[in-house]
Design a protein that fits this description.
114 residues, mainly alpha
Length: 114
Amino acid sequence: MRMNVWRNPEINHLVLALSCVSIVALVGAFLIDLAAGIWMLVVCAGFWLVILIFMRIRYQAISNLSYELDRVLHNNFHLPPDEHDEGELSILRSEICKMTITLREQAETLEKDK
Protein backbone atom coordinates (compact mmCIF):
# COMPACT_ATOMS: atom_id res chain seq x y z
CA MET A 1 0.00 0.00 0.00
CA ARG A 2 1.46 3.31 -1.01
CA MET A 3 0.38 6.54 0.65
CA ASN A 4 0.12 9.78 -1.23
CA VAL A 5 2.07 12.34 0.79
CA TRP A 6 0.61 15.30 -1.08
CA ARG A 7 -2.95 14.51 0.08
CA ASN A 8 -1.89 15.63 3.55
CA PRO A 9 -2.74 19.34 3.98
CA GLU A 10 -0.13 19.76 6.74
CA ILE A 11 2.59 18.63 4.35
CA ASN A 12 1.32 21.01 1.68
CA HIS A 13 1.35 23.93 4.13
CA LEU A 14 4.83 22.99 5.37
CA VAL A 15 6.21 22.77 1.83
CA LEU A 16 4.63 26.09 0.90
CA ALA A 17 6.02 27.84 3.99
CA LEU A 18 9.49 26.37 3.57
CA SER A 19 9.48 27.24 -0.11
CA CYS A 20 8.69 30.87 0.68
CA VAL A 21 11.43 31.02 3.31
CA SER A 22 13.91 29.41 0.93
CA ILE A 23 13.08 31.82 -1.89
CA VAL A 24 13.38 34.85 0.38
CA ALA A 25 16.71 33.58 1.75
CA LEU A 26 18.05 32.90 -1.74
CA VAL A 27 16.98 36.27 -3.12
CA GLY A 28 18.42 38.04 -0.09
CA ALA A 29 21.70 36.15 -0.35
CA PHE A 30 22.06 36.83 -4.08
CA LEU A 31 21.36 40.51 -3.48
CA ILE A 32 24.17 40.61 -0.92
CA ASP A 33 26.77 38.75 -2.96
CA LEU A 34 27.04 36.07 -5.63
CA ALA A 35 29.13 33.83 -3.37
CA ALA A 36 26.60 34.23 -0.55
CA GLY A 37 23.81 33.36 -2.97
CA ILE A 38 25.59 30.23 -4.15
CA TRP A 39 26.32 29.24 -0.57
CA MET A 40 22.66 29.77 0.38
CA LEU A 41 21.58 27.73 -2.65
CA VAL A 42 23.72 24.81 -1.47
CA VAL A 43 22.40 25.14 2.09
CA CYS A 44 18.77 25.27 0.91
CA ALA A 45 19.30 22.26 -1.37
CA GLY A 46 20.80 20.29 1.53
CA PHE A 47 17.99 21.40 3.80
CA TRP A 48 15.35 20.26 1.30
CA LEU A 49 17.14 16.95 0.75
CA VAL A 50 17.13 16.22 4.48
CA ILE A 51 13.45 17.18 4.79
CA LEU A 52 12.45 14.98 1.86
CA ILE A 53 14.42 12.02 3.22
CA PHE A 54 12.83 12.33 6.65
CA MET A 55 9.39 12.79 5.12
CA ARG A 56 9.86 9.66 3.01
CA ILE A 57 10.99 7.61 6.01
CA ARG A 58 8.06 8.85 8.09
CA TYR A 59 5.46 8.12 5.43
CA GLN A 60 7.00 4.72 4.76
CA ALA A 61 6.51 3.84 8.43
CA ILE A 62 2.90 5.09 8.28
CA SER A 63 2.33 3.13 5.09
CA ASN A 64 3.73 -0.03 6.68
CA LEU A 65 1.47 0.37 9.71
CA SER A 66 -1.51 0.94 7.43
CA TYR A 67 -0.66 -2.22 5.47
CA GLU A 68 -0.38 -4.26 8.67
CA LEU A 69 -3.73 -2.91 9.88
CA ASP A 70 -5.29 -3.91 6.57
CA ARG A 71 -3.92 -7.42 7.04
CA VAL A 72 -5.37 -7.54 10.57
CA LEU A 73 -8.74 -6.41 9.27
CA HIS A 74 -9.00 -8.86 6.38
CA ASN A 75 -6.90 -11.87 7.29
CA ASN A 76 -7.10 -12.08 11.08
CA PHE A 77 -3.35 -11.45 11.18
CA HIS A 78 -1.88 -10.85 14.62
CA LEU A 79 -0.25 -7.42 14.98
CA PRO A 80 2.80 -7.85 17.22
CA PRO A 81 3.82 -4.87 19.33
CA ASP A 82 6.91 -3.03 18.15
CA GLU A 83 8.93 -2.90 21.35
CA HIS A 84 12.18 -1.50 19.96
CA ASP A 85 11.06 1.83 18.53
CA GLU A 86 10.00 5.02 20.24
CA GLY A 87 7.84 7.91 19.09
CA GLU A 88 4.27 8.66 18.14
CA LEU A 89 3.97 5.87 15.59
CA SER A 90 5.29 3.32 18.05
CA ILE A 91 2.78 4.49 20.66
CA LEU A 92 -0.02 4.34 18.08
CA ARG A 93 1.07 0.85 17.02
CA SER A 94 1.11 -0.28 20.65
CA GLU A 95 -2.39 1.08 21.28
CA ILE A 96 -3.71 -0.57 18.12
CA CYS A 97 -2.09 -3.84 19.18
CA LYS A 98 -3.83 -3.61 22.57
CA MET A 99 -7.12 -2.91 20.83
CA THR A 100 -6.80 -5.90 18.49
CA ILE A 101 -5.95 -8.19 21.43
CA THR A 102 -9.00 -6.92 23.34
CA LEU A 103 -11.26 -7.36 20.31
CA ARG A 104 -9.90 -10.86 19.68
CA GLU A 105 -10.50 -11.81 23.33
CA GLN A 106 -14.04 -10.43 23.20
CA ALA A 107 -14.73 -12.36 19.99
CA GLU A 108 -13.45 -15.57 21.61
CA THR A 109 -15.64 -14.95 24.68
CA LEU A 110 -18.68 -14.40 22.46
CA GLU A 111 -17.91 -17.63 20.58
CA LYS A 112 -17.73 -19.54 23.86
CA ASP A 113 -21.01 -18.01 25.06
CA LYS A 114 -22.78 -19.21 21.90
